[in-house]
Amino acid sequence: MFDFTSISFCNSTNARTGIFTTPHGLVKTPKFMPVGTLATVKGLSSTQLESTDATMILSNTFHLHLQPGERIIKESGGIHKFMNWHKPVLTDSGGYQVFSLGKLNKISDEGVSFKNPRDGSYLFLSPEKIMEIQMDIGADVSMAFDHCPPHTSTENDIEDSIKRTNLWLERCVKTHIRKDQALFGIVQGGKYPRLRELSAKFVSSFDLPGIAVGGVSVGESIDEIHNVISLVPKFLPSNKPRYLMGIGTLKEISIAVAQGFDLFDCVLPTRLGRHGTALFNNERWNLSNARFRDDFRPIDQSCTCETCKNYSRAYLHHLIRNNELLGLTLISLHNISHVIRFTNAISKAIQDNCFTIDFAPWETSSIAHHTW
Amino acid sequence: MFDFTSISFCNSTNARTGIFTTPHGLVKTPKFMPVGTLATVKGLSSTQLESTDATMILSNTFHLHLQPGERIIKESGGIHKFMNWHKPVLTDSGGYQVFSLGKLNKISDEGVSFKNPRDGSYLFLSPEKIMEIQMDIGADVSMAFDHCPPHTSTENDIEDSIKRTNLWLERCVKTHIRKDQALFGIVQGGKYPRLRELSAKFVSSFDLPGIAVGGVSVGESIDEIHNVISLVPKFLPSNKPRYLMGIGTLKEISIAVAQGFDLFDCVLPTRLGRHGTALFNNERWNLSNARFRDDFRPIDQSCTCETCKNYSRAYLHHLIRNNELLGLTLISLHNISHVIRFTNAISKAIQDNCFTIDFAPWETSSIAHHTW
Question: Which of A318, A320, A334, A337 to mutate: most B Cβ within 10 Å?
């Protein structure tokens, strides 16, 4: 039911294009996946989301467990039907959220106990429980439950968390029995090359349909992020999709693709959209700025998204200035389209042998300008 | 450029169907017009709005004058292009808003001076100015500037306001020179039959392409609303569309159609939608109510709107409970579709000779059930 086939390879970097097959269709990689934490990509209907050329989208096990609860999603016929998204869905396990949001968490090899941030009630999550929840939610891809410690942890603490994550992965693999759902393992190890290698090799020792690299962009420096991106892929199998979690800035996507990563996700396009900030090339524009008041061009004349086809900067400025909901929706729609367009352009550039690690196809001097 | 043709007549009431021709297409009446005060029907893209079967929509001269200002709209190519709505648009003159929002207003025959509620700056609006603004905005239909006093005013005060409204109408007619824009007059007169008659006859003495009845549903009792609805149409020409301003409850629409009204507008469908309340038949459902938590049916199984085709009550409940923007959009979309569907059903029922003043086509016992 799951397959990853490499289609073409870059002649100067480790970039590749591929096709990841899921029960809800194909994902052509490299690809950016929009985030719909609570079974909704904030502000966008599924029709609008489809218009961005999104294929696989993300939701979050931890958040969905709290609200509406996996029973509701299961009884509604699974997450695809619940949220009316009939293309692939991936659920993050919520490991990151458990540790970052569950303030009073108590961690043991058994699992994590913490107080529900919504109502203070006592909750306990284990690898087994997280697998059961994800099987109930019914996404195409589920993620292993991982221990994601703060980036400021000592090497010893990170090593302990990797041992736990490894132990948990074994239990996830054992518990996960849903054949129409893939289980991806997650590589941890913080900023420590030795631990990243250890973790990558361990996760790779399972024949899982895909592998993710987590614990990146959790507060560490950009150089540390780049180091992990460069280091880890060489320890991962090449015949499986490689997913770099939580990365959505164009520069880092480009660097990561050059190292052989295939899948990306980030809340940034929608979060920026909700603050009235639009993506343009590699810039961020605050559309509430007075300079857009009588600028009747679309955000990006070269963009074919619904927002750019139909609405001007002046109109979006007007909406944002007046706190009109539609402004947030339209800018989010553009921003998602923009990042997906970027990964689509990378894909085309790899096929055309003009991908570079500093990929910036909007520049007329770029040898990949035709991909934009 | 403007024409109103009656198509069919009810055999038991004064209801009629008709076609109002505008530069941006036909409006089949009776028809409900969604409100987009600030050149946006709150939360809906123009594609979503089109899916509700909306034709003519409303915007507001007073609000658009304050933000973004008519210059921006004119320079962008007019309101249709600005908001990407290429069907008919009507701009209310803002008379009602000037008197209800402009707290410190000073009214004379010359016009109204008041403080901008946004920034406290001094503003002056006259019939001439309001016409110029509306010609700049460029809707298909502009409304005359009317003096709309509080419903608690004495008969004398209302009579004075009618005299002023009449004087202003003459000046509006004189100033309004845009041939591709219709000017509608507005009947005032509060709850006083004598004054309503006086006003209706005066407005009717101009050969305008349409006439509206304003100052209804501004705080007076439902019986007083019904009295005005019954009284005024007999004094209006039958070969012009009759627009009952600010009315959007199904019961009152039905009563008004039976008296010969053709056009309606109301903020209710979107305002309720933003509060998580959905329209179902003649009921209002608060979708955040726990009973919808695991109700996997659409809001209305008989409704073909995008929301009802694609999303369940349980999903909408989930969105509303979590303050997700999409919930507001989807419920507003359904609510607008619902009221438009109601006026479309009335239209079909008039043609099929089964319209009644207590029109409730969802009831299986209704002789007009097939129109729903």
Answer: A318
